[in-house]
Amino acid sequence: MAVANYHDLYGTMPPAYVADADGRPLHSWRVLLLPFLDQQELYQQYNFDEPWNGPNNRKLMPLRPGVYALHDETSQQAQETNYLAVVGRQTAWPGSRAHKLGKQKTEGDQPILVVENVGSGVSWLEPRDLQFDSMNMSVAADSPSGISSRYQPPAVVTTDGTVLTLPLDMDPQTLRNRLLVTHQEPLERHPNVKIIDDGRDRPLRGSAKETER
Predict the structure, then answer these.
(1) Dist CA 111 CA 123 (whole Å)
(2) Can you give the pLDDT at residue 188?
């Protein structure tokens, strides 16, 4: 919803990052979305005249909004985010260039916008995400360089805000296709891709409830 509201106001999605004159990432899309997440006060404390980890901005790292972390994430990871974009020329996040959403298909068929991730160590303020060309495309790998979650099955969010759970046996090429906004052919829906209303309605990995499934 925050991305959609940003798009309505500016005519594009936020860029994956704001870069300096040399192309170095300075500020993350997660900061740009703060006013659309009822975090205007926090946004106003952020200083765009210094990098994300500058003297002032470092003080904001412990103030991570809960929306950027998995449900019930521990305080020890209070500065890290569990939601990453996938940055690439043909994805919804083409670096410092903002993407304009086109006409969408039916619910659940839109490109993937954000993925769950555990273990990458990305600060919620940091302009760093997954890179399409180098990320691990195996959902089963549960890799910090790809899709991973404390919940099973792992979930992603599409460009229309739909939450999908991904089966561990999803073919890596299918995942690649779902990340591309330029993929023109109809994407074959995996029979075990599920649309869910609430991402918290999943068992923790290794729990008895998951074992029963």
Answers:
(1) 25
(2) 56
